[in-house]
Amino acid sequence: MEAARRMKILAAEDNPISQSMLRSMLTKWGYEVLTAANGNEAWNILQSAEAPRMAILDWMMPGQDGVEVCRRLRAASAEPYTYILLLTARSDSQDLVEAIDAGADDYLTKPFNSSELRARLRAGRRIVELQEQLLEAQEALRERATHDGLTSLYNRVAILDLLRQELARATREPLPFSILMADLDHFKEINDRHGHQAGDEVLREAARRMKKTMRCYDSLGRYGGEEFLVVLPSCDECGAWTMAERLRQSLGDEPFAFGEALFPITCSIGCATQPAGDAYDCDSLIRLADGALYTAKHRGRNRTEVAQPELVVL
Q1: Does an H or E element contain 156, and which?
Q2: Which residues contact 98 (CB under 8 A, 6 or more apart)?
Q3: pLDDT (tens place) for every residue of the chain, 314 residues total
Q4: What CATH number does residue 103 fall under?
Q5: Segments forming the whole domain that contains residue 112
Q6: Measured at the alpha carbon of residue 129, what is the angle toward residues 125 and 133, in degrees to the nearest 5?
Q7: Is the same domain home to 237 and 103?
Q8: For labelling, which of 26, 46, 79, 295 has a CA lying 20 to 30 Å from the CA of 140?
Q9: Do both 124 and 67 map to the same domain?
Q10: Are 306 and 220 in a shared domain?
């Protein structure tokens, strides 16, 4: 019964006595009950942000009837799934066909037996719970497919997809657009001196610090090894340089810890910007950022360099 106590259910019934009876039974069985006196109220509740996952709908109601509410809900293909049981005084087999065709999961004829209603709701709850498990499994698979297992950032494929989407939008609108390529300095020495577990912890902590520094609509991904790609929508060259410096300082201002060991970590960053009205391709922008990153490494590391736009080959 623990699952039922946590589950909301809608009881849509225009007869006050029948509605009161339903509320009393459902509450006794451990459900959190929402009520509606007509089809329009029921529809609004089922469209709300915290809509119940189960609904008992009377067939004949003012406004929209139960079948129409059911049909509209199924046409919307809403997720997560809502289990719907229709109540009606009709008993003709054609009525059952109409209810099922409208998308009802079950059908109960009035006057109904309370034990039968309870059993059917238990079956409906199992369907809802199985669908929740399926959605959780799908989300876990999506997360694994798009995120790096070590840092929980976007992986290379996902961050490049985001880059292409945001670059296309910036070109279309048009808006300035920038990317950063950040690389941790002397990362191999961390693995050599402290071991790969220390290196992994540095990568996780670096990801956490950088992500905390960014704007809510920026994107950060692990491009490969100790290299990170940052996507900055609506960001000009000055803004990109400012963001790069904030990221660099977020890593360099405080030492990283692994066990009792403390060691400094710095990064080098290359910035590349597509000015509003220009149209770079994705590969050209990445080459620009890579070139600026190489320059930052060549000039002593722990610094930010801005790419020269005249080097873009369109």
Answers
A1: helix 156-172
A2: 67
A3: 444 447 899 999 888 888 898 999 999 998 999 999 998 999 999 988 888 999 999 988 888 888 899 989 888 877 788 999 998 877 677 777 887 888 888 888 888 888 999 999 999 899 888 888 888 888 888 888 899 999 999 999 999 999 999 999 999 999 999 999 999 999 999 888 888 999 999 999 999 999 999 999 999 999 999 999 999 999 999 999 999 999 999 999 999 988 888 889 999 999 999 999 998 999 999 999 999 999 999 999 999 999 986 554 44
A4: 3.40.50.2300
A5: 2-144
A6: 170
A7: no
A8: 46
A9: yes
A10: yes
Distances (CA, A) of 281 to 168, 171, 175, 284, 288: 9, 10, 15, 5, 11
226 belongs to the catalytic site:
yes
DSSP H or E segment with residue 43: helix 39-46
Measured CA distances, 176 to 161, 179, 215, 221, 249 (Å): 18, 11, 16, 20, 24
Peptide bond into 111 cis (omega under 30): yes
Asked if residue 150 is part of any domain, the answer here is: no
> CA-CA distance, 300 to 185, in Å (whole number)?
10
Q: For the CA atoms of 62, 68, 74, 78, what is the dihedral angle to 10 degrees?
A: -30
- Sole residue written with tokens 């029921």: 42
Q: Are residues 106 and 217 in the same domain?
A: no
Distance from C-alpha of 220 to C-alpha of 214, rounded to nearest angstrom? 9
Evaluate whether residue 151 is within a structural domain. Answer: no
**Alpha-carbon dihedral of residues 141, 143, 147, 149, nearest 10 degrees?**
-70
| C-alpha–C-alpha distance, residues 230 and 222, integer Å | 9
The total of other beta-carbon atoms located within 10 Å of residue 282's CB is 14
Rounded CA separation 202/44 (Å): 49
Based on the structure, what is the number of domains in the chain? Answer: 2
Residue of 226, 245, 254, 310 with catalytic role: 226
